[in-house]
Design a protein that fits this description.
heterodimer; A: elongated; B: mainly alpha; 2 strands
Chain lengths: 76, 264
């Protein structure tokens, strides 16, 4: 007798609409990271009279967004 | 110098630009209100969709006729491949009216971009995608607040299991993502795709016309090529237009599903 395959929850599949939708949603995370922390860097630059904090902010924002995307979608 | 001035000076070809998207039917840019071509088309699309759905469901049969087959096909696609997968089979049904309406409305209005004599994608006027994105925005936040409570919804923004020092940063990121960039990307993606697509078609079609009518023999060949490309790009646009309707609906369902899901 063949045992039925364990029912897999639909959001675990390697492909399908969920993965596709997430891929489209990732843009939003990246943009959020760049805008928020890049913007923060720009403000700090403005206040402190420096010019390199905006770059730090952009890089940190992008890194944070990548980390979150990996944590949310890559680890489970 | 504006293109119209250039044209008046006999400089020749007027490249298409954002002026080609401003089509007042009643009133002008100085009057307090205007009825524009895209707003008439949006109304027309509602009438068309209503007619189509009524006709497709009037004589329901076990063996569907052609209209019923198409109608059920589109509905089944939105229901099974978008709503059920992304919201979950327990709760997706009550969001079907929204998702199906969004898909139909966006698909028909986008396809207006390549339908002869209409040939204008409604969504290339930014106000229309903004209104649609606002509906999505309000819906998924309302659903999330109703499900988890005000504090619970904000708590649930951060996925569990993160190192504690990074939580505040991730909270900011999630907050900006859900409250600012999601509606921004949702509306901009649809608008920009339709705007750029329409502009591209205008370049090839107007270019072909101009080259064929005024060019020498060599330029006439280029005009024919431009015309051929216009036809190719029209088919390409059909694909983009349906795809954008699909993506918009897909993301609406994803956001609703995300607002409903418990993180822990």
């Amino acid at each position: 007798m063949v045992t039925p395959a364990p029912q897999r929850p639909s959001d675990d599949g390697p492909e399908g609409p969920l993965e596709e939708a997430r891929a489209w949603g990732i843009v939003s995370y990246l943009l959020a990271g760049l805008l928020t922390f890049g913007g923060l860097g720009l403000l700090l630059d403005h206040w402190l009279g420096t010019s390199w904090l905006v770059l730090v902010g952009l890089l940190a924002g992008a890194a944070l967004a990548f980390y979150l995307i990996w944590f949310r979608y890559g680890t489970r | 110098m504006s293109p119209t001035v250039l044209a008046a000076q006999g400089e020749g070809f007027t490249p298409p630009g954002k002026e080609d998207f401003w089509w007042p039917i009643l009133g002008s840019d100085t009057s307090p209100w205007t009825l524009t071509r895209p707003s008439v088309m949006a109304l027309l699309s509602v009438a068309l969709i209503a007619w189509f759905l009524l006709a497709a469901t009037r004589r329901r049969a076990m063996v569907p006729g052609r209209l019923q087959f198409v109608g059920e096909g589109v509905y089944g696609f939105v229901r099974e491949s978008i709503a059920r997968d992304l919201i979950g089979s327990r709760e997706f049904l009550k969001f079907m009216p929204l998702l199906f309406t969004q898909f139909m409305l966006i698909a028909v209005n986008n396809l207006f971009g390549i339908i002869p004599f209409v040939q204008y994608p409604t969504m290339s006027r930014f106000g229309f995608p903004v209104a649609l994105a606002a509906i999505t925005y309000i819906t998924f936040h309302a659903v999330g607040f109703a499900r988890k409570g005000f504090v619970g919804y904000f708590k649930d923004l951060v996925p569990p299991g993160l190192p504690s020092w990074i939580v505040p940063f991730i909270f900011v990121l999630e907050f900006v993502d859900k409250f600012i960039t999601r509606p921004l990307t949702l509306s901009l993606r649809l608008f920009a795709n339709m705007f750029a697509g329409h502009l591209l078609l205008l370049v090839f079609i107007l270019g072909a016309e101009h080259l064929l009518l005024t060019g020498g023999p060599g330029l006439k060949v280029a005009g024919v090529l431009s015309g051929v490309l216009a036809i190719v790009m029209t088919f390409f646009e059909a694909l983009v237009e349906i795809l954008q309707a699909y993506i918009f609906t897909l993301l609406t369902a994803l956001y609703i599903g995300g607002a409903l899901a418990e993180e822990h």
